[in-house]
Amino acid sequence: MSPEVKGQITYEIPDREIMSSGHLACPGCGAALAMRTCLKIMGPRTVLCVPACCWAVIDGPFPYSSAGVPVVHCAFETAAITATGVRHALDMRGVKDVTVIAWAGDGGTFDIGFGALSATAERNENILYICYDNEAYMNTGIQRSSATPVGAWTTTTPSQHPKEEPKKNLVEIMAAHRIPYAATATVAFPDDLTRKLEKAKAMTGFRLLHIFSPCPPGHKSVESDSIKISRLAVDTNVFPLYEVENGTHYTLSRQSKDVPIKEYVRLQGRFKHLNDQAIAAMQERVNREWKRLLKRIECSE
Predict the structure, then answer these.
(1) Spans of all domains in the chain
(2) Does the chain have fewer CB atoms within 10 Å around its N or its C terminus?
Protein backbone atom coordinates (compact mmCIF):
# COMPACT_ATOMS: atom_id res chain seq x y z
CA MET A 1 0.00 0.00 0.00
CA SER A 2 1.33 3.44 -0.91
CA PRO A 3 2.07 5.98 1.82
CA GLU A 4 -0.35 8.85 2.13
CA VAL A 5 0.58 11.93 0.13
CA LYS A 6 0.04 14.89 2.42
CA GLY A 7 -0.29 18.59 1.72
CA GLN A 8 -1.44 18.35 -1.89
CA ILE A 9 -1.96 21.96 -2.94
CA THR A 10 -2.82 23.34 -6.35
CA TYR A 11 -0.33 26.12 -7.04
CA GLU A 12 -1.29 29.04 -9.21
CA ILE A 13 1.06 29.37 -12.16
CA PRO A 14 2.02 33.00 -12.94
CA ASP A 15 0.39 34.58 -16.00
CA ARG A 16 3.67 36.13 -17.14
CA GLU A 17 5.31 34.72 -20.23
CA ILE A 18 9.12 34.77 -20.37
CA MET A 19 9.50 32.31 -23.23
CA SER A 20 8.17 33.56 -26.54
CA SER A 21 6.38 31.90 -29.42
CA GLY A 22 8.21 31.17 -32.64
CA HIS A 23 10.54 28.61 -31.11
CA LEU A 24 11.63 25.59 -33.13
CA ALA A 25 10.29 22.71 -31.02
CA CYS A 26 8.35 19.90 -32.64
CA PRO A 27 4.58 19.83 -32.02
CA GLY A 28 3.84 18.15 -28.70
CA CYS A 29 7.39 18.62 -27.38
CA GLY A 30 7.52 18.10 -23.62
CA ALA A 31 10.79 20.04 -23.37
CA ALA A 32 9.18 23.22 -24.70
CA LEU A 33 6.29 22.92 -22.24
CA ALA A 34 8.71 22.29 -19.37
CA MET A 35 10.82 25.34 -20.22
CA ARG A 36 7.76 27.58 -20.47
CA THR A 37 6.62 26.56 -16.98
CA CYS A 38 10.12 26.78 -15.56
CA LEU A 39 10.66 30.34 -16.76
CA LYS A 40 7.26 31.42 -15.47
CA ILE A 41 8.44 30.43 -12.00
CA MET A 42 12.07 31.47 -12.23
CA GLY A 43 11.36 34.84 -13.83
CA PRO A 44 13.60 37.12 -15.91
CA ARG A 45 16.49 37.03 -13.42
CA THR A 46 17.63 33.69 -14.79
CA VAL A 47 20.59 32.47 -16.83
CA LEU A 48 20.33 29.23 -18.79
CA CYS A 49 23.37 27.12 -19.66
CA VAL A 50 22.37 24.81 -22.51
CA PRO A 51 24.65 22.17 -24.05
CA ALA A 52 24.15 20.36 -27.35
CA CYS A 53 20.59 19.05 -27.12
CA CYS A 54 17.15 19.69 -28.55
CA TRP A 55 16.90 22.96 -26.66
CA ALA A 56 20.04 24.29 -28.34
CA VAL A 57 17.92 24.19 -31.52
CA ILE A 58 14.52 25.01 -30.01
CA ASP A 59 15.83 28.36 -28.75
CA GLY A 60 16.28 29.55 -32.34
CA PRO A 61 19.14 30.47 -34.70
CA PHE A 62 21.49 33.33 -33.81
CA PRO A 63 20.75 36.17 -33.27
CA TYR A 64 17.23 35.10 -32.29
CA SER A 65 16.26 33.47 -28.99
CA SER A 66 12.87 32.35 -27.73
CA ALA A 67 13.96 31.77 -24.13
CA GLY A 68 13.58 35.39 -23.05
CA VAL A 69 16.56 35.19 -20.68
CA PRO A 70 20.33 35.01 -21.28
CA VAL A 71 21.35 31.65 -22.75
CA VAL A 72 24.91 30.36 -22.65
CA HIS A 73 25.39 27.67 -25.29
CA CYS A 74 28.12 25.25 -24.24
CA ALA A 75 29.69 21.95 -25.24
CA PHE A 76 27.78 18.70 -24.85
CA GLU A 77 29.53 17.61 -21.67
CA THR A 78 29.78 20.97 -19.90
CA ALA A 79 26.31 22.11 -18.79
CA ALA A 80 27.03 21.66 -15.08
CA ILE A 81 30.48 23.21 -15.05
CA THR A 82 29.45 26.08 -17.33
CA ALA A 83 26.62 26.89 -14.93
CA THR A 84 29.11 26.69 -12.07
CA GLY A 85 31.38 29.21 -13.79
CA VAL A 86 28.49 31.59 -14.43
CA ARG A 87 27.39 31.29 -10.79
CA HIS A 88 30.88 32.10 -9.46
CA ALA A 89 31.26 35.01 -11.88
CA LEU A 90 27.96 36.49 -10.71
CA ASP A 91 28.95 35.97 -7.07
CA MET A 92 32.25 37.80 -7.63
CA ARG A 93 30.24 40.75 -8.99
CA GLY A 94 27.91 40.65 -6.01
CA VAL A 95 24.91 39.57 -8.11
CA LYS A 96 22.95 37.25 -5.85
CA ASP A 97 19.40 37.50 -7.22
CA VAL A 98 19.99 35.57 -10.45
CA THR A 99 19.16 31.85 -10.66
CA VAL A 100 21.65 29.89 -12.75
CA ILE A 101 20.20 26.82 -14.42
CA ALA A 102 21.96 24.06 -16.32
CA TRP A 103 19.30 22.83 -18.74
CA ALA A 104 20.20 19.60 -20.54
CA GLY A 105 18.71 16.50 -22.12
CA ASP A 106 19.28 12.96 -20.97
CA GLY A 107 22.22 12.42 -23.32
CA GLY A 108 24.11 15.38 -21.89
CA THR A 109 23.12 14.39 -18.34
CA PHE A 110 23.05 10.60 -18.01
CA ASP A 111 25.93 10.02 -20.43
CA ILE A 112 28.22 12.63 -21.96
CA GLY A 113 27.99 15.20 -19.16
CA PHE A 114 27.78 12.74 -16.30
CA GLY A 115 31.34 13.26 -15.04
CA ALA A 116 30.90 17.02 -14.82
CA LEU A 117 27.46 16.55 -13.25
CA SER A 118 28.85 14.29 -10.53
CA ALA A 119 31.78 16.60 -9.79
CA THR A 120 29.49 19.63 -9.57
CA ALA A 121 27.11 17.78 -7.24
CA GLU A 122 30.00 16.56 -5.08
CA ARG A 123 31.17 20.15 -4.60
CA ASN A 124 27.57 21.21 -3.86
CA GLU A 125 27.78 24.11 -6.29
CA ASN A 126 24.96 26.62 -5.98
CA ILE A 127 23.12 25.87 -9.24
CA LEU A 128 19.88 24.25 -10.34
CA TYR A 129 20.37 21.41 -12.78
CA ILE A 130 17.29 20.48 -14.84
CA CYS A 131 17.30 17.41 -17.06
CA TYR A 132 14.44 17.16 -19.52
CA ASP A 133 14.42 13.46 -20.21
CA ASN A 134 13.04 12.24 -23.54
CA GLU A 135 14.87 8.94 -23.12
CA ALA A 136 17.18 9.06 -26.17
CA TYR A 137 19.46 11.33 -28.21
CA MET A 138 16.53 12.88 -30.06
CA ASN A 139 18.28 15.90 -31.57
CA THR A 140 20.88 13.79 -33.38
CA GLY A 141 18.65 11.02 -34.73
CA ILE A 142 16.98 9.06 -31.91
CA GLN A 143 19.95 7.00 -30.70
CA ARG A 144 19.70 5.13 -27.39
CA SER A 145 21.06 6.70 -24.21
CA SER A 146 21.39 5.22 -20.75
CA ALA A 147 18.02 6.84 -20.04
CA THR A 148 16.34 4.71 -22.72
CA PRO A 149 14.07 2.11 -21.10
CA VAL A 150 14.35 -1.63 -21.59
CA GLY A 151 12.66 -2.83 -24.76
CA ALA A 152 12.51 0.54 -26.51
CA TRP A 153 13.17 1.03 -30.20
CA THR A 154 15.76 3.60 -31.24
CA THR A 155 17.80 3.87 -34.42
CA THR A 156 20.71 2.17 -32.62
CA THR A 157 18.45 -0.38 -30.90
CA PRO A 158 16.09 -1.37 -33.73
CA SER A 159 13.00 -3.45 -33.07
CA GLN A 160 14.86 -6.67 -33.89
CA HIS A 161 17.41 -5.78 -31.20
CA PRO A 162 15.71 -3.41 -28.72
CA LYS A 163 17.50 -2.01 -25.70
CA GLU A 164 18.27 -4.72 -23.18
CA GLU A 165 19.75 -2.66 -20.35
CA PRO A 166 17.65 -0.96 -17.64
CA LYS A 167 17.34 2.80 -17.48
CA LYS A 168 19.86 4.51 -15.26
CA ASN A 169 18.26 5.87 -12.06
CA LEU A 170 19.43 9.48 -12.11
CA VAL A 171 17.77 10.65 -8.90
CA GLU A 172 19.15 7.72 -6.90
CA ILE A 173 22.65 8.48 -8.15
CA MET A 174 22.28 12.16 -7.26
CA ALA A 175 20.84 11.26 -3.85
CA ALA A 176 24.01 9.27 -3.19
CA HIS A 177 25.90 12.57 -3.52
CA ARG A 178 23.87 13.86 -0.53
CA ILE A 179 22.85 17.00 -2.39
CA PRO A 180 20.26 19.31 -0.79
CA TYR A 181 17.47 18.50 -3.23
CA ALA A 182 16.57 16.12 -6.04
CA ALA A 183 13.10 15.50 -7.46
CA THR A 184 11.16 14.11 -10.40
CA ALA A 185 8.42 15.96 -12.27
CA THR A 186 6.41 15.96 -15.50
CA VAL A 187 4.49 18.55 -17.51
CA ALA A 188 1.29 16.55 -16.94
CA PHE A 189 1.15 17.76 -13.32
CA PRO A 190 1.95 21.49 -13.48
CA ASP A 191 0.98 22.07 -9.83
CA ASP A 192 3.59 19.55 -8.73
CA LEU A 193 6.18 20.89 -11.18
CA THR A 194 5.49 24.46 -10.05
CA ARG A 195 5.85 23.58 -6.38
CA LYS A 196 9.15 21.81 -6.94
CA LEU A 197 10.53 24.68 -9.03
CA GLU A 198 9.54 27.16 -6.31
CA LYS A 199 11.17 24.97 -3.68
CA ALA A 200 14.38 24.55 -5.67
CA LYS A 201 14.55 28.27 -6.41
CA ALA A 202 14.40 29.11 -2.71
CA MET A 203 17.22 26.72 -1.78
CA THR A 204 20.98 27.04 -2.07
CA GLY A 205 23.49 24.42 -3.04
CA PHE A 206 23.17 21.86 -5.80
CA ARG A 207 19.60 21.04 -6.76
CA LEU A 208 18.45 18.66 -9.49
CA LEU A 209 15.07 18.33 -11.16
CA HIS A 210 14.47 15.34 -13.44
CA ILE A 211 11.56 16.07 -15.81
CA PHE A 212 10.00 13.35 -17.97
CA SER A 213 9.64 14.90 -21.44
CA PRO A 214 7.66 13.14 -24.20
CA CYS A 215 9.10 13.37 -27.71
CA PRO A 216 6.55 12.53 -30.44
CA PRO A 217 9.14 11.84 -33.20
CA GLY A 218 11.35 9.73 -30.92
CA HIS A 219 8.58 7.97 -29.05
CA LYS A 220 6.58 7.52 -32.27
CA SER A 221 3.53 8.99 -30.60
CA VAL A 222 0.73 11.37 -31.57
CA GLU A 223 1.55 14.99 -30.75
CA SER A 224 -1.72 15.50 -28.89
CA ASP A 225 -0.95 12.53 -26.60
CA SER A 226 2.11 14.06 -24.93
CA ILE A 227 0.30 15.12 -21.76
CA LYS A 228 -1.58 11.82 -21.62
CA ILE A 229 1.69 9.89 -21.98
CA SER A 230 3.28 11.99 -19.23
CA ARG A 231 0.33 11.34 -16.95
CA LEU A 232 0.40 7.61 -17.65
CA ALA A 233 4.14 7.48 -16.98
CA VAL A 234 3.29 8.54 -13.43
CA ASP A 235 0.06 6.58 -12.96
CA THR A 236 1.71 3.33 -14.12
CA ASN A 237 4.69 3.94 -11.78
CA VAL A 238 7.06 4.02 -14.74
CA PHE A 239 8.08 7.52 -13.63
CA PRO A 240 6.94 8.10 -10.03
CA LEU A 241 6.88 11.63 -8.65
CA TYR A 242 8.95 12.05 -5.50
CA GLU A 243 11.55 14.22 -3.77
CA VAL A 244 14.80 13.47 -1.95
CA GLU A 245 16.27 15.99 0.49
CA ASN A 246 19.87 15.77 1.67
CA GLY A 247 20.15 12.37 0.04
CA THR A 248 18.19 10.55 2.72
CA HIS A 249 14.67 11.92 3.20
CA TYR A 250 12.26 10.60 0.56
CA THR A 251 8.77 12.03 0.02
CA LEU A 252 6.14 10.75 -2.40
CA SER A 253 4.53 13.56 -4.40
CA ARG A 254 1.62 11.71 -5.98
CA GLN A 255 -0.34 8.64 -4.99
CA SER A 256 -0.02 5.58 -7.21
CA LYS A 257 -2.97 4.60 -9.38
CA ASP A 258 -1.39 1.29 -10.43
CA VAL A 259 -2.56 1.61 -14.02
CA PRO A 260 -1.29 -1.37 -16.08
CA ILE A 261 1.82 -0.51 -18.05
CA LYS A 262 0.21 -1.68 -21.29
CA GLU A 263 -1.88 1.51 -21.21
CA TYR A 264 1.37 3.49 -21.36
CA VAL A 265 3.25 1.51 -24.00
CA ARG A 266 0.32 1.22 -26.41
CA LEU A 267 0.47 4.98 -27.15
CA GLN A 268 4.11 4.79 -28.27
CA GLY A 269 5.31 3.20 -31.47
CA ARG A 270 8.76 2.67 -29.97
CA PHE A 271 7.22 -0.26 -28.03
CA LYS A 272 4.93 -1.70 -30.71
CA HIS A 273 7.25 -4.67 -31.37
CA LEU A 274 6.85 -5.93 -27.78
CA ASN A 275 4.74 -9.05 -27.28
CA ASP A 276 2.63 -9.84 -24.22
CA GLN A 277 5.51 -11.64 -22.54
CA ALA A 278 7.84 -8.66 -22.94
CA ILE A 279 5.20 -6.26 -21.61
CA ALA A 280 4.64 -8.56 -18.63
CA ALA A 281 8.38 -8.54 -17.93
CA MET A 282 8.33 -4.73 -18.14
CA GLN A 283 5.45 -4.67 -15.65
CA GLU A 284 7.45 -6.84 -13.25
CA ARG A 285 10.43 -4.49 -13.42
CA VAL A 286 8.23 -1.47 -12.79
CA ASN A 287 6.55 -3.18 -9.83
CA ARG A 288 9.93 -4.12 -8.36
CA GLU A 289 11.32 -0.59 -8.65
CA TRP A 290 8.12 0.89 -7.21
CA LYS A 291 8.39 -1.37 -4.15
CA ARG A 292 12.00 -0.32 -3.68
CA LEU A 293 11.00 3.34 -3.74
CA LEU A 294 8.20 2.74 -1.19
CA LYS A 295 10.69 1.08 1.15
CA ARG A 296 12.96 4.13 0.97
CA ILE A 297 10.01 6.40 1.69
CA GLU A 298 8.95 4.20 4.60
CA CYS A 299 12.44 4.34 6.09
CA SER A 300 12.37 8.15 5.80
CA GLU A 301 9.20 8.54 7.86
Answers:
(1) 30-300
(2) N
